[in-house]
Design goal:
With 41 residues, the chain is mainly α. It has one domain (2-40). The protein is 90% helix and 0% strand. The chain contains 2 helices and no strands. The protein has helices at 2-25, 28-40. Helix 1 packs antiparallel against helix 2 (28-40). The radius of gyration is 12 Å and the shape is elongated.
């Protein structure tokens, strides 16, 4: 169970930082897909 919780926190961090990375590289397409995936999860 602890592993699942750790994995969930990692996914949370990825969801937080991916839009920042997308903004830095100015790739709106990846930012949009991350936002859609975040809405569905």
């Amino acid at each position: 169970m602890a592993v699942l919780l750790l994995l969930w926190k990692v996914v949370d961090l990825i969801h937080l930082y991916m839009p920042l990375l997308a903004a830095m590289t100015k790739q709106n397409r990846t930012g949009r897909s991350i936002r859609v995936r975040f809405c569905f999860s």
